[in-house]
Design brief:
Two copies of one chain form a homodimer.
Chain A (H helix, E strand, L loop, with lengths): L10 H30 L2 E6 L6 H12 L5 E7 L4 H7 L5 E5 L8 H8 L9 E5 L16 E7 L6 H4 L1 H5 L3 E5 L11 H11 L4 E4 L8 H13 L1
Parallel strand pairs in A: 1-4, 1-5, 2-3, 2-4, 5-6, 6-7
């Protein structure tokens, strides 16, 4: 309630109630997704980040690196356009695009529907590229086996403290665009320190999809995950 | 409803209903803010972008450029921390921090409360730095006289097509970090073309807060706005 004007937006509480219910429903679908992925022996990886942190490029790079060793499927989330799906399709792997319209995140139900349209029996690894948004996707469990947050060096090393939830919910932080480190004020040690302040167990890989630095470490990490 | 499993998340419609009501309430507060700013003769500028596109740095640069010519106040929106407010305070201008917790955007009511805590009678220009998010802030009119979207060269030139609402709702697109253009795949002409496909009237300024390129054009733009 505004002390000066005396009015308050009374729908806020109602919105919070409904939102809680939506999250509870989401958890039911996330659990179904988890069972479905487990049933097919597929490792799902939910990639979350700001727009333009390099999610699609990292998926492309990973498809190339794992060709012949691991069968990959991809689900792309965007507000509009199927550009990312088209980019991935050129790599010859099965892909589905979820276009969310105004919704700022993927939820477990959207993912569930998309998974039914992928040949899960012929996939080992399912990348889910979430909507580019460092806030909202973190609130929605998708039921994937792994949550990964990307932070590009051009975004600033202060982001884990300012957007803590997504770093808390991820088991791995991938610092992308390491090739641009020279031109920006980004201290990787500080970024790691701040990410571990909100999530002491978070793992970290620093890489550049452009130069290939760190890609080997990333591939090892997901191969370990796929086997476990 | 999922065709395979036969269930549907029935709360989605209810959430949309409540959300519509929230947006209607928001518009009432936005109108109050508009009147309040008009009453004090203050130009409000709502800065929207992804995290790390350079909103705070651009505000700092603008404060320095306009010192002695224009009295500036700032409202900072973040999920957590008051770091941005502390950065701005060092420049000696009045500032208020809004910490939204899990809310992914500023709304007009939050802004209204914060405005009551600023000396609007001694300000010509009020910068409102929205939460770093290219999706949700665009849905909430704040009642400011100007909406500006920042897009950094490191985010990719495809963002206007993929996140259209914020470009549709802004009258100016500021392409930031022009000093990094050499090291990234970003075609400013393509970004402008795509932004104008969703908003034919959008103005464009390309700048670098680091090198100062384009800052003069930006200052002229907001000075024209403040006088109109």
């Amino acid at each position: 309630m505004c002390q000066e004007c005396g009015c308050s937006p009374d729908t806020t509480r109602k919105l919070l109630d409904v939102r809680r219910k939506v999250l509870e429903d989401n958890d039911v679908w996330a659990e179904r997704n988890r069972e479905m992925l487990r049933g097919y022996g597929v490792l799902g990886i939910n990639l979350m980040s700001s727009p333009g942190s390099g999610k699609t490029t990292l998926i492309e790079r990973t498809i190339d690196a794992l060709r012949g060793r691991c069968r990959i499927g991809v689900i792309e989330g965007d507000l509009e356009t199927d550009r990312d799906a088209r980019r991935i399709r050129q790599r010859g792997v099965p892909v589905r695009q979820i276009t969310t319209g105004q919704a700022c995140h993927l939820d477990a139900f959207m993912l569930h529907e998309a998974m039914h349209n992928l040949p899960l029996d012929r996939i080992d690894l399912l990348f889910v590229e979430n909507v580019g948004n460092l806030v909202c996707p973190a609130a929605y469990d998708l039921g994937t086996g792994m949550n990964v947050v990307l932070l590009s060096t051009t975004e600033g090393d202060d982001k884990p403290a300012k957007y803590p939830l997504v770093f808390r919910r991820s088991e791995l932080m991938v610092i992308t665009k390491s090739d641009l480190l020279q031109g920006v004020d980004f201290d990787p040690r500080l970024a790691v320190q701040e990410a571990r302040a909100v999530n002491p167990l978070i793992q970290v890989i620093v890489l550049s999809s452009r130069t290939g630095e760190g890609i080997g470490e990333w591939i090892e990490y997901i191969e370990r995950g796929a086997k476990s």
